[in-house]
Structure prediction request, 296 residues.
Amino acid sequence: MPLETATEYDQISSDVYVSGNDVYVVGSLAPQGGAPAVVWKNGLLYAQYNSTNPNGTGIGNSMVIENGDFYVLTGNQISGVSANNSRPSSLWKNGVETIILNPGYTNTYFVGSYLSVKGSNVCIAGFKNGLPALWVNGVVTTLSNLPGSKCTGIVILNNIVYVSGYILGSNGTYKAMRWSKNLTTGVLTSLNLTPFTQTGRAVAIAVDEQNGIVYTLGSRTINSVSEAVLWSDTTPTVLSGATYIQDVAVFNGNVYVLGKSNSSGGDNVSLWINGVLNANPFNQPQPRILRYLALK
Prediction:
């Protein structure tokens, strides 16, 4: 699918979203996220977003269509500010911008990376003051007070918002995490997917709405052995042959994982379907990786 207006080296994509027969890609026309943030629809430039924030330029991070409303999450790059705080975010609903929290240099603004919308609940995972945080309908909750920790995805299921990510402990090791917040009671729960001496990171998250299951994709190391893992709620399944994992999606009860494998002696783009490896589903013999997976 060609992305028009700029060369392939000048533009970046951050997310892909499928609605009906339409495929949307969110990103920017500049390689480092310069203005404007854009959305492509079925390969053609569809919308551009120029923030009213005078301090920065835009990058499209994520998008959702819910109940006919078109939500886009953008960030606004500010030079001279640390990476975790350099993109105070804007939420666009049907083209109308809301800058999230204070967009100035006061370290009180919110830096959003991942968006999920269900009904009237708008949820964003990202950073506040350099720490992983969750924004829900204007209320921000810090998920960890450990610097170096990060959110990597967000989903909503049965009025609970789930966030994947990892924390960096004081001993320099990572722990794969899944945070959840009940949207009715406000109760926040932290789940360590790599307990005891295990280490690891969670890199993506998806839900099976039909069966009420949350899938978290990540990696773990046990006794110096590293492996790719897909957690079904809290039950881990090792993805055989994986050398790299990127994204997870659920379609018609089937669970798809995108990554790379060492099958056939190469480093091929691979797809695991319900845990079974398809070593070259896109007929790409050269080493390469697709970044995002969306199915509908």
Q: What stands out?
A: The radius of gyration is 19 Å. The chain has two domains: 1-142, 146-296. Residues 1-9, 78-85 have pLDDT under 50 and may be disordered.
